[in-house]
Amino acid sequence: MASEHAPHHHPGHGHGHDGDHDMTEMLDLDAEVASAEIDALTARIAELATTVVRDIIDVGSGTGTGSFALLRRFPEATVTAVDTSEDLQRHLAAAAGRHGLAGRIRPVRADLDAGWPGLGPADLVWASSSMHHMTDPDRVLRDVRAALRPGGLLVLVEMERMPNFLPAGFGDGLEDRLHAAHAEARAEHLPHIGSDWTARLKAAGFTVHDQHVLTVERVAPLPHEAVRYAEATLRRFRHSLADRLSAGDQATLDGLLHGGLAGRDDLTVISNRDVWIAGA
Ligand SMILES: C[S@@+](CC[C@H](N)C(=O)[O-])C[C@H]1O[C@@H](n2cnc3c(N)ncnc32)[C@H](O)[C@@H]1O
């Protein structure tokens, strides 16, 4: 779940193979690296569920991180995976086939900005790093609530900042500048990022049952997939933030990426995402 689109990316409209490929890879590697924490979250959802979870909607499903984790947790469930991106839906459908889950995932291509595509009723709606992409998240939250059965749950996950990978002080604070540039670019394109989701949930009629921070922390030396996650994320920064970085920072980043991160034993992963579990 939960890494972030480049600010200039419009879902469904690729802008060069590098960016789209990096994003898909980054989402999949994020799922791999954070799988234990995501499984702990689905266990918490199972504790809070008061009804049998059969029908799940994954809002902005991406490569299917949430869909697959929820299918693992809820053996009787099927997932409707909604996304506007054809590429990501194809990727998700192929992964579902590989895992023998094609019969339990229904990909639906829809732009939720255009309205709710008549989905439901559902026992559980999962929206991870997708709600801030919506033009009018309040309307989508109301539609989600209307789609939930009595006793149904919405799980909202939002990542406010990108993960940290580099040792403190590396490149004279390079990662801090990357995050600042990313946040600045994102704020221009995604005005709802970092908004008061608790208030928005309540305004849409939800009751928040649980709110916590999900932390993913891996110490050095990182396993292979976590190094690849760091590399995909930093490469994505290199492409999407080029016009916001100094020549010096670009050169340092190029050195890191071309030198290969695989040989480094000083990388870490630290990321936080906010989680709300709310009742309809
Ligand atoms: C940062 S990704 C998160 C993907 C996945 N939920 C995860 O946690 O890995 C955001 C997803 O929301 C989708 N999305 C953005 N705007 C959308 C819209 N208006 N309607 C449907 N999906 C949308 C994007 O295509 C993308 O797959």
UniProtKB/TrEMBL annotation:
Residues 1-23 are annotated as: Disordered. The keyword Methyltransferase applies. One of its GO terms (molecular function) is methyltransferase activity. One of its GO terms (biological process) is methylation. Residues 56-152 form the Methyltransferase domain. CDD domains: AdoMet_MTases. The keyword Nucleotide-binding does not apply. InterPro entries: Methyltransf_25, SAM-dependent_MTases_sf. Keywords: Methyltransferase, Transferase. PANTHER family: TRANS-ACONITATE 2-METHYLTRANSFERASE-RELATED. This is Class I SAM-dependent methyltransferase. It comes from Actinoplanes aureus. The lineage of its organism: Bacteria, Bacillati, Actinomycetota, Actinomycetes, Micromonosporales.
